[in-house]
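Give me the fold.
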Amino acid sequence: MPIFKQRDRLTIFAEILKTAGESKEGSTKTDIVKNVNLSYAQANKFLSFLLTEGLLCLNMENRYKPTKRGLKLMNNLKSLNLGLQS
């Protein structure tokens, strides 16, 4: 029987920010849905929150990019994760 591991919100936020930051042009919603393994409805909910909080921005080509604040959060989460694994 497979064991499913649920991700917490912070992990999903970090994965979205990472995916959006991987490309110079930013990522489309479809890229984020596929790479982060979210449903379209889940992606809408998380993207809306990240946009509202100023962690992501949406450019003229409808591509998502992390803001400076989003990059800082992503780096902080990465540091916390590394600290927990030590």
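The chain has one domain: 9-85.
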